[in-house]
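Sequence only, no structure available. Ideas?
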Amino acid sequence: MDFGDLVYIDLTTKEIKREQCPDVIVKNFLGGRGLGTYLLMKNVHKDTDAFGPENILVFATGILTGTDMICSSRLHICTRSPLTNYIATSNGGGYSANELKSCGIGALIVRGKSKSPVFINIKDEDITIEDASELWGCKTEETDKKVKEILNDNKTRIVTIGPGGENKCNFASVMTGIGHFAGRTGTGAVMGSKLLKCIAIRSKRPVKKADDPESKEAVKHYFKKIKESPYFEKYSTIGSTYLVTWADSKGAGSARNYEDVVFEGINESAAASNRELVVKTKGCHKCPVNCKADIRITSGRHKGKIFERPDFEPLVMWGPKCGNKNGIESVFFHSLCNDYGIDSMDCGSMVAFAMNLYEKGILTDKDTNGLKLNWGNTESMEKLLEQIVYRDTQLGDTLANGIRKAASIIGRGSNNYAFTVKGLTMPAMDPRGFKATALGYCVSARGSDFTYVYAKPEYSITKEKALEYYGTEKAADRLSEEGKALMVRRSIISTAIVDSVGICKLPQNSFLVDNDLEIITEVINKVTKLGITPRELFIMGERIVNMERLFSYRFGASKKDDQLPEKFLNEPIGKGASKGSKVNLEKMLTEYYGLMGWDKDGNISSEKLIELEIGKF
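Reply:
I predicted one. Tokens follow.
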């Protein structure tokens, strides 16, 4: 199949090389996340520093990107993470991936380091490296506007970093389009370390008309399935904001940095879910869901302003996790993070961590230069956010390293409040209230993150389905550990496939839920003519997950990294719907390792490597 070219750009030598992506690679790794992992394994060696010129950044499209398929304009970014030291992998939406594919490019691979700020300008077959000195220091939307003015083309798609990436904040993000960000794991910081401000992408080739009846029918069938989902209407109107109150209602929220599992101001913190605030809904290229929206604020200090509506995770990070009841302020903080090009989830968690230390007396007014970091103090939250982005105070500079490193610098017992897995901050759901999610946090190659595994079946399927899929009805009980190892194995492999074919996880994993690969296989075969079975597709996903683990093991990862903070293993939840629950991780971990074909220490067996044919790549 014609996946598109691999374009290699060396910012040190300014050399640009273009070659066709071999079919054998596409047939074994698909594209997107899979292709990015393959390219990392081939090009990033064990002595490579995340901020070193030898590190590479991969911007990869999926095999369905640029086709008739809906919801398929996802751009996957891979590198070595400065935050976790292991694999960095992040996924952004919008229109950039489709535009890249229209230029005949399947993946862009950037290495080296420029002597001064630059941007990459792609116009179909023409690729140049341009001076970006006047762009350095600009925020993300400002950069988007200025580049379009420089190129005199308002239809150019811009992939850019903001000041967060320029200052090498270890959890800086990459904007893949206005309102679209590839967050977590610090890909933006690596981009900043190379003095690469942005990538401008523009194709003037005529849009291909869909004329294949089989392809059209497969896409139509996929759309019918997601539209019939009970979640479709909610996501099409209020996005994922309705979930702000959800984990709290289960007695497993993250209030005040996990000090409590419920939050007394939870309803106020969900203000962004008000449908009356919506100015317009919007989405990505060829997306019928339109889960995003612009909202107009009708009261308070931001009255009259229009902000991008966040997903529920950032609203929780800046809301309950920071002890902040004002949901509109959470929207504002998320908007600031987008402007600065910094991951909203990690930054919100970082502020919550600092507030936790301040409340415990570990950080004092002397440490904060007089900043009062009491729970819910939105004025101080805003100031600390800016200090982190610009690293212009001792505390801001320390926190910009990420929670794990910041705790080691601060000391004084601060590590007891540094809730991460592999250095990545934990999200909205307390793992004691969701056992498959807990295991997923641990075995995810990029660290504690729900979307990397998407173990939604533990609270979304019937007992009958749980028995059929996972061998026990208890798999449908979020507080039970039974069946969760098999659930996580299937979920993590299915999610790797979704990220690699280039479709959005929202309709596939949130709407269809059950990790059934039949419908994805049908679409792949009818749209790309690849000719694979669901079993072969599953093996591809398994290969990708195993290669990600091999990459991180190259840099010293081991079973010790597949662990939750002690709090969640030893302290039962004290009240509410999840009262008495804690995580018996070792039992699930041992079972999961066995199902994956790994030994008791989490090392991939030689038999599994042979079975997946990883050695030949």
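The domain at 434-616 is CATH 1.10.599.10 (Aldehyde Ferredoxin Oxidoreductase Protein, subunit A; domain 3).
Hope that gets you unstuck.
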